[in-house]
Amino acid sequence: xxxxxxxxxxxxxxxxxxxxxxxxxxxxxxxxxxxxxxxxxxxxxxxxxxxxxxxxxxxxxxxxxxxxxxxxxxxxxxxxxxxxxxxxxxxxxxxxxxxxxxxxxxxxxxxxxxxxxxxxxxxxxxxxxxxxxxxxxxxxxxxxxxxxxxxxxxxxxxxxxxxxxxxxxxxxxxxxxxxxxxxxxxxxxxxxxxxxxxxxxxxxxxxxxxxxxxxxxxxxxxxxxxxxxxxxxxxxxxxxxxxxxxxxxxxxxxx
Length: 255
Fold this sequence. Notes:
By secondary structure, this protein is α/β, with parallel strands linked by helices. The protein has helices spanning about 45-60, 70-75, 90-100, 110-125, 135-145, 175-185, 195-210, 235-240; strands at about 20, 30, 80-85, 105-110, 130-135, 150-155, 185-195, 215, 245-255. The N and C termini lie far apart (about 45 Å). Residues about 5-20 and about 30-35 have low confidence and may be disordered.
């Protein structure tokens, strides 16, 4: 089994616990201390997923440590570094990593069945350019990633927290975007995707408010065409058949 983070709550904490945390560089962490970048979901780890964790975990899973990550030592090579926040069951991550073998991918996901599912895909497809951090992505970004270390960030279909009173719990908020922009190299990109239109507009608004980022799209609404590397998932295809939209938002770090 994966080690559990004892400080992680299955649901966000009350506002009384929301004192801002600090990053290693002294800046505010993207969300208050008790509001995480995830909600721990229920779900049973299958036999195949657990076998993948047992067999492949030692190779691909990284332990959280509040110190700078040595990318070259971790991957055994120097290559462009891409962070993915919340990879779910890992199908998109495996697809992109296989499509872009020249890049190194670090995926943050606390859902154990998802970790096992991605490990299974890495083994079946013989993909070697992915590492997994089963820990809160906000803490990983704040304490393990250094300034200008990333070439790209993927945030695909984060929880929309669709009830208005829960909007404050959304992942894409100004403090996180500021922190991610600091970790991006000049020219690096931040790619978000969502199937919740109101959240899509918020993403454009929040990213547009970060002065070091610029929108790659001048289309109405600020939305970008789906980049070729992001596959259309089964969930997405079903949504499109039902008339649901999907919006991609791609910004770059100014040189």
